[in-house]
Amino acid sequence: MNKIVEVKDCFYTYEDGSQALKGVNFTINEGEKIALLGANGSGKSTMFLCLNGILKPQKGQILFNERPINYSKKDLLKLRSQVGIVFQEPDKQLFCSSVYQEISFGILNLGVDEETAKEIVENIIGELEITPFKNKPTHFLSGGQKKQVSIADVVVMSPRLIILDEPASALDPKHTEIVRNMIDNLSKKNMTVIVSTHDMNYALEWADRVIIFENGKVLAEGSPEDILSDEELIIKSNLLQPEVIKLFLRLCNEGVLDKSLSVPKTMDKLANYIIERNKI
To answer: What b/e sequence results for 237-273 when a residue is b if at least 16 CB atoms lie within 10 Å of its CB, and e otherwise?
Structure first.
């Protein structure tokens, strides 16, 4: 796999003296689905802002596409067209008067001609199920609709890496499903996707790899099955173990299932284990 991002020994301290990053190291490979996990205040959001060039580490280095990030105005504009962030609160991201103008703004700002931009924007609006409210003022949208538009803002520029900070935060079940389907579709297009989430069940089922942040450092990284099965690690990082893993481990400890079985990602997979055992 080709590395798209490499973070080397990064530190960041805010003006009030709070140290958000304390020597962070990790890599992201092209096409990966990464769940970035950790308690509030562990450094996840600060790391996202560094990856996009909004913040610059005071120490350490970030490489994008094997080149150190250059913080000139021209290079940052190019970086942000390739590394897009969808913020947790969409109101911090939306500023145009209508949905259509909002989604068009970024791609027109890249210098794409109006006719081509219009075609791309219309395609994105259709793909992301925004057509019914594309002409609405952005301030009249529901929270879920605002989230859809904020994702479209980024996707329309065809970034190589998209970062989503708590994409389902404060959404109802219907819009949570819509947003997660959008994320799945991005992954199917071989886009590299990083998602910050507190939903461990989703992280287990969706991610190729998880990275856990704790107190400004990477505490652990690996496959979701391995990392989220580690009860000691889960307790240390103030996270909750996915329900399917808790039930699986209990059934193994009770002798109902064999401990040699691979950790199931879904309840359907666990149910199949039980069905197969009862056939014996």
So the answer is: bebebbebbbbbbebbeeeebeeeeebbbeeeebeeb
Tell me the pLDDT of the chain averaged across its residues: 91
Averaged pLDDT, 188-192: 86
What string of H, E and C letters represents the secondary structure of 48-109? Answer: HHHHCCCCCCCEEEEEECCEECCCCHHHHHHHHHHEEEECCCHHHCCCCCEHHHHHHHHHHH
Supply the pLDDT for residue 244.
96
Beta bridge partners of 195: 35, 164
Q: Which tops the pLDDT comparison, 98 or 218?
A: 218
Give, in order, the Cα–Cα distances in Å from 276 to each of 244, 245, 247: 17, 18, 17
Among 73, 55, 87, 71, smallest CA distance to 153 is for 87
Q: Integer distance in angstroms from the first to the last C-alpha of the chain?
A: 41
* Contacting residues for 31 by C-beta, under 8 A, at least 6 apart: 1, 190, 191, 192
Amino acid at 205: E
d(CA 182, CA 86) in angstroms, rounded, equals: 13
> What mean pLDDT comes out for the span 3-28?
96
Calpha distance 147→166 (Å, rounded): 11
Q: Where are the alpha helices (DSSP H) in the chain?
A: 44-51, 73-82, 99-109, 114-127, 143-155, 173-188, 200-206, 224-229, 231-236, 243-253, 267-279
Model pLDDT for residues 48-81, shown as the tens digit of each residue: 999 999 999 999 999 999 999 999 988 998 898 8
